[in-house]
Amino acid sequence: MTAYRQHCPVASATEVLGHTWTLLVVRELLHGNSRVSEIARGVPGMSSALLARRLKQLAEAGVVTRLSSTGEGRFALTPAGRDLAPVVEQLGRWGRRWLPPPRSGDLKPNLLLLDICRGMDPARLPREKVSLHLRFAETPPPRWWWLVLSPEGASATETDPRLPTAARIDCTVSALAGVWLGHRTWREALDDRAIRFEGTREAVRNTIGWLGRNRFTLSVSASNRSMAQQFD
Predict the structure, then answer these.
(1) Topology of domain 9-98, per CATH?
(2) Which of 45, 59, 160, 184 sits CB 3.0–4.6 Å from 178 for a disulfide?
């Protein structure tokens, strides 16, 4: 790790947290992912060797602890690690407020859908398990994805779950990301046909309500609610 050799606590903290991928590993642990494979799913561009090294460094710094288990390694945040939650949250809010929308080359359906599933409120999801079928126009295979929704939460899959389909959505990844991150409204995306629904007006209204918005979006859900009301 880099040693800044300064008395400043910011410098000391940066020595632990300022390396590539480190805060994203902490983000995954804050989401409750303890197994190495679960953490790796949220940082797919990170090599397994680097992930192991970062986890070791965080353990040495007292940020994470290795859990006793057989088979796959599992880790958990220590009190010091859990205390990073507001730091990660504020970084996300800062990035959403001051940085431009993500570049098209940085958009990946699997990560976007993972983020959307994490952000869904289980209390607002349907009582019976259903799926949303998404068809992405501009990406290489797999172009088809399904979101499985139930009161227990949401998950994304590339395999047809053989569930009742609440709605089908044809879109570009950038259009869905733009709406999810609050850079554009549902109305704008629908008007320019970057997002197209197949389903009843009730299904469209429900889908918009289920998907919601990323928590870092400044105007959190007022736009979603007003848009959903147009389909009443």
Answers:
(1) Arc Repressor Mutant, subunit A (1.10.10)
(2) 184
Separation of first and last alpha carbons in the chain: 56
- pTM above the 0.85 mark? no
190-193: long-range pairs with CB below 8 Å, 24+: none
CA distances from 197 to 19, 65, 167 (A): 42, 45, 7
Q: Does domain 109-211 have CATH number 3.30.1050.10?
A: yes
Rounded Cα distance, 35 and 94, in Å:
29
CA distance 155 to 145: 10
Nearest C-alpha neighbor of 67 from the set 35, 37, 99: 35
pLDDT tens figures, 92-142 = 999 988 999 888 788 889 999 999 999 898 999 999 999 999 999 876 666
What pLDDT digit, counting tens, does each position of 67-85 carry? 987 778 899 999 999 999 9
Dihedral sign of CA atoms 12, 14, 19, 24 in order: positive
Q: Where are the domains of the chain?
A: 9-98, 109-211
For 177, the enclosing helix (H) or strand (E) is helix 173-180
Rounded CA gap, 13 and 153, in Å?
35
- Backbone conformation region of residue 62, classed left if phi is above 0, alpha if psi is from -120 to 50, else beta: left
